[in-house]
Amino acid sequence: MKNIFLLFLFSTSIILSAAAQWKQKAKESGFEKTIALVESNRFLIEVKRAFPLGGKSVDLFSNRGRITITDSIAKGFLPYFGRAFSAIPGEDGGISFDSKMRKKEVKVKDSKKKKHILYSFTVKGRNDTYQLFLDITSDSSCFVSVRSNRKSQIAYDGIIRPLPGETPEH
Question: How far apart are CA 33 and CA 31, in angstroms?
């Protein structure tokens, strides 16, 4: 009976160890896929929640924002909730842009607790210039912070994925 119990404990520890290793490898594989997607410079970010400066968060059920990166062009519309320092009559009120990215930086942060990619760039809108800071994690979640010359800062929570019809290269 004692031998059966010891065999059971030994088997359980081997199974748990293998499961932990498999989980770690799957996590690293997911992060490598995310890095490949970001390095392809062809991805889409869909935001699901907005965090206005000094306000309550806003769920974006019907008016989700999107950012599309295609090579060196950033195109996007993000709903805006916050204070505008100056407004232009007839302006849509959101954050919108479709132009070449400038000052683009990509950094991979790899610590024991968290692996993530910091991706930042500046882009011109019709009547404003925006600085976007993306914090992308291995599970494809993305936190986007936007600074503007004419509006208070705002942040978004979303997900990064390949452009429709494309798959990331391994």
Answer: 5
Report CA Rg, the chain.
21
What are the pLDDT digits (tens) for 2-57? Answer: 666 555 555 555 654 544 454 554 455 668 888 888 888 899 999 998 898 877 87
Cα of 146 vs its chain's centroid, Å: 13
Tokens 């914090």 belong to residue: 135
Longest dimension (CA), the chain: 84
| 122-145 residue pLDDT tens | 998 888 889 999 999 888 899 999
What one-letter code names the amino acid at 69?
Answer: I
Structural element, H or E, at residue 78: strand 73-78
CB within 8 Å of 122: residues ≥ 6 apart: 101, 102, 103, 129, 130, 131, 132
Token pair listed for 83: 């204070």
Report how far apart, in Å, the C-alpha atoms of 104 and of each of 9, 41, 58, 112 are: 53, 11, 28, 26
CA 48 to chain centre: 11
- Tell me the helices (H) and strands (E) count for the chain, helix number first: 1, 10
Q: What pLDDT is stored for residue 102 in this prediction? A: 93
